[in-house]
Amino acid sequence: MKRLLLALLLLIVSGAAQAALNVVATTPNMGMLARTVAGEHADVRILAPADRDAHYLQVRPNMMAALRRADLVVSVGAELEIGWLPPAIQGAHNPRIQPGQRGYFEAAAQVDLMDAHGVADRSLGDVHPAGNPHIYFDPVRMAEAGEALAERLASMDEANADAYRANARASPNRCENICPRGKLSLKARQGPCCIIRTPII
């Protein structure tokens, strides 16, 4: 009987230790970033379909359901999702992922943005006053965002902190392999080194 109880206790402890973080990414690019850095230690759900413009999504019940269970939201930021992410988070009623909390992460806030404008409106087209949020076209900025994300994940899951940091450190090497000029860009801190349609890390 004691052996059975001990075995059950070990199973419970083991299951708790292996429980993956629930991560919700706003776009496929952010989903790739989260999966690259978190690896096997997170279940990643993506809100925006790959064939939709993430600037103009509508809030849907399945978004709020995913956000309600999330431990961490990984967004592009710089107001790219301003039209739908704030109301989706509000509707999810999840205090862990509110802006300013540890469970809310904006990739664009981790890097220096290009093309910042003081004032902008719809008459100017797709202009972002805070700066160009499309950092996923730049391996340098994506690598920086990956390192910041690794630190955020490490603060939430100390047991796997080394794995998150190792995954983030490996990301620039993957960029160099994918983008012919990646090595030069990463060393010179210039970008973007290339423009592609699929996530690079």
List the helices and strands and how they pair.
Blueprint: H1 2-18, E1 21-25, H2 28-38, E2 42-46, H3 61-69, E3 72-75, H4 85-92, E4 104-106, H5 139-156, H6 161-178, H7 182-188
Parallel strand pairs: 1-2, 1-3, 3-4
Characterization of the model:
This protein has one domain (21-113, 124-188): 3-Layer(aba) Sandwich (Rossmann fold), CATH 3.40.50.1980. It has 7 helices and 4 strands, in the order H-E-H-E-H-E-H-E-H-H-H. It has helices spanning 2-18, 28-38, 61-69, 85-92, 139-156, 161-178, 182-188, and strands spanning 21-25, 42-46, 72-75, 104-106. Strands 2-1-3-4 form a 4-stranded parallel β-sheet, with helices on both faces. Strand 1 (21-25), helix 2 (28-38) and strand 2 form a beta-alpha-beta unit. Helix 2 (28-38) crosses helix 5, helix 3 crosses helix 4 and helix 5 packs antiparallel against helix 6 (161-178).
Instruction: Tell me what the CATH architecture is.
Output: 3-Layer(aba) Sandwich
Radius of gyration: 19 Å
User: Stretches where pLDDT falls below 50 for ≥5 residues?
Assistant: 10-17, 180-201
In percent, how helical is the residue content?
A: 40-55%
For the record, what CATH class applies?
Answer: Alpha Beta
Strand elements, count: 4
